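Sat 14:20. Reprocessing the chain from the morning session after the first attempt stalled halfway. Input below, unchanged.
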Amino acid sequence: MKMFRSRSWFGGGWGRPKNPHSLEHLKYLYNVLSRNQTVSEHNRELLVETLRSIAEILIWGDQNDSSVFDFFLEKNMLSFFLRIMRQRSGGSNYVCVQLLQTLNILFENIRNETSLYYLLSNNHVNSIIVHKFDFSNEEVMAYYISFLKTLSLKLNAHTIHFFYNEHTNDFPLYTEAIKFFNHPETMVRIAVRTLTLNVYKVDDASMLAFIRDRTAAPYFSNIAWFIGKHIQELDMCVRNEADHHSQNRLADLVAEHLDHLHYINDILCLNITDLNHVLTDHLLHKLLIPLYIYSLASHRRKSSLPEGVNQAVAKILSKTLSRPDSPRLQDPLSGRVSCVVALFLLSQVFLILSHSPLVQSLAWIILKTDSTVLDKGVNKLLEHYESEKKLLEDSMNNEASAVNFTSKEALLEDLRNITDEEKEKLAKNPSENVAMHKPFLETVYSALDCSENDYGALFALCLLYAMANNKGITSDVIEQVLKPKKSFMSKCSSKDIKYSYNVYLVEKLLLIISLACQPTCRIRLVTLEISLKLLLHLVICDGKNILLEPHRAVIETAKSQSMTLLRNFYKSEEIFLDMFEHEYCDMSKSSLNVEWLCMDSAILLPPAGTPLTGIDFIKRLPCGESEKARRAIRLYFLMRNTVLTLSGEMETQLPLTNPQSCVQIEQALDLSISRYNSDLIACTVLYKDGMKMRRFLVIDVLQLILVEPDNKRLGWGVAKLVGFLQDIEVTGDKDDSRCLHITIHRPISGATTNRVPLLSAKFLFDDNIRCMAAKQRLTKGRLKARQKKMQHIARLLEIPGQSGPPSPAFTGQGLYTCRATGRNLRENRQLFTASRAPGFAAPKRESSPGVLHRADESRRHRDGDSPHRLSNLRKELNPSPSSNNVKKETRSREASSSRTKSREGSPKMPRPRSEEIPLELIKKASHSIIDMAPKINILPRPQSAKTESEPCASGLINDNAQSKESGVLKETTTISEETSFIGDRQSDKKSEEREAV
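Finished this time. Tokens:
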């Protein structure tokens, strides 16, 4: 009976309130805690469920019933939590996990400030914070640090006094959290950083003074030490993983370093003067100068090879250790890292940090430190910087002209003690004196050597670019080195301004650019792009190009070399045009972001030459002819854009397709105009899912358009699908001569990726004549569109001797030229009739198969009767009439064969009159009138061989011409393919012939 009552009291249905969200239920849970204050293996499940229910009902009470919190505080239920945590009995860790989770949920969801004050008022929360949990349990550690972070989110000017005790000088929430700043788990470290930032944001002078005096120095010192240790691991990883086989570890280390820098930047951006001073002092003295900057001067490099990336490279470099200026392998325990790693890390520092006192001192030390101060240590180096800074400020206050401390007089003052040989050398090339006696800057300049590869040059360029664009660095530090310098010729007038720039650095950049345009160079595209960005930053001032004439010539020569390199890959093949357009589209979407580039750990390894490494194309060397072509295309675009920017011109030739001139989806089109109506063909689109749609097919100059008639305006249509002719594939249907299988591809999104079709469907036309006409128009339109763009590329590349590649679509150039002239005269040819547009009625056509085109007949009559024609023929004919007939027939066959050659690949069936106007009609006299409107049905004609007789010298027509009165040609009669169109005879000609009969 006792056992039965126990079960019903703790977990049974007797005594438990039916409503879980009520004050009665909280009272019931309180009784459960009161009777189970000692944790054991038997009741731990019950305690866990009780704690979970308490958190749930407290959150409900916070929003609905204040009496719930009143009862919770009255019974001091947090004391039960402490009592449970302090027990060491079995199952205590299991209950502690639920307890921490309950507290975390409770403080995270409470919205009422009064309820929050009640929970924090009795100091039980601080007692829970300082409790010695078993942190070897991962769950306890995770919930504990999450609980602390949740509490930090509740900090403000009113709640800070619940956590910081000014009388006892105690702040357990902060002091306990920073103990885990170096925890192995990334989640724990991130939570600690978030907590400290939340604490620093609270505007409370006494609390900030406590942090500055009691915790700032040791905490920031430990952070500097931890980052330095992390950098040593990163440097070792770069040395041992140069084969690109294991990049995950290196990527994690780089990401961790970025997190450190962003955390430091977040602290500095809070603008807490005391904290920033302490943090800056520790970073300069213990991390950035001794480890980052001094690694640049630990050796003098004469090549851009890495100093020790793996064992193979180490063996090669060990042979040159006897030379004092050769690359040396650095001992990781010596407190230095390799030069490439130092350049890479400093680039990240200047790209992320913008606190002026910090980045200003770093930039001055790199650009202006003298070799005499280098060996005196970090403290002397910073003292020298402070003294120089004070002298500069004094000179600026005394005289404004003293700002130009890099003037010629100052430069000559620095060079008084050099030897005569050095003076002679400087006189020949004065730009080489920029980095003299400046070891850090000299190392950066030396890394720009790309004679072997661009491994170190990429990081040196990133560093220079980052310093030049850092907002925290004033212009007086980087002027004349990384920024153009302006000087006024006269003090009274500001009109005469003289511009100057760092000639030595510009020449270094121009050398990289020139080498990148060579066919066999080993310079990556990303290195070239940063070089061009930095060059434009150095030589453009106040919107003006201040580049000297010899340097301009180098740029123009490099552009010509890039064009010459691209001509080697210029072909009439389809892949070149697709690649050209894709690369331009890809480069136009976004320019290179140097900050994103320095987040990529892959560039820390030696340049890769294969896509198997997974490295982006612009960050590695090309592999194979296809990637070499892609590199040549991008190289041309970069050089072209640079030249246009320097000249102040806008791009007018690219892209190849102007989007503004193209038809867009849902655009209304006037189908009565010749541009769209000339190639208007009705069809039914059969999709693969069984859906059918009636559309009109419009073939524009560059586009294929599917049009739906507009219900509101007569003769107008709405574009429902638009695709480029150059991206279509057309195949006939073997089973149905009226069908075509058309695939319209989307614009290419990558040189090696599969193209996703925009449309792949079957097109059903009204008859086979329209089907053949559509196929021919689409095929020719595709070839012409691609040929037109290739000719445009040829003009861009200034290819001598041609305006574009020979198109495989046209082999009979003479005849094609003649036809093209005729087409230009009549603008656009009509397919069936000019009025055959949606909403217009079409005239009925008569059925009269086998009738000769009467316009051709009238032409032959007129040509035969012409006196000019008779006189010309008499001059050319031989006395023998038989030889005259032979020549005439020969000329007729030659013309026919010429016309046939120009139509290779087209259907051999006679085409309808609306598809192409006969050549003879184009050559008619301008005063003649031709009735072009067809009035009869178009039927397929037999393919039997026929011959056509030429008129004799006397101008009389032969018997075949006379037999046209019956309206039918004889079966043995043949006509030219160009005149095999059915038409109507002019009405006036009919009456004349009837009178003659």
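The longest strand covers residues 716-724.
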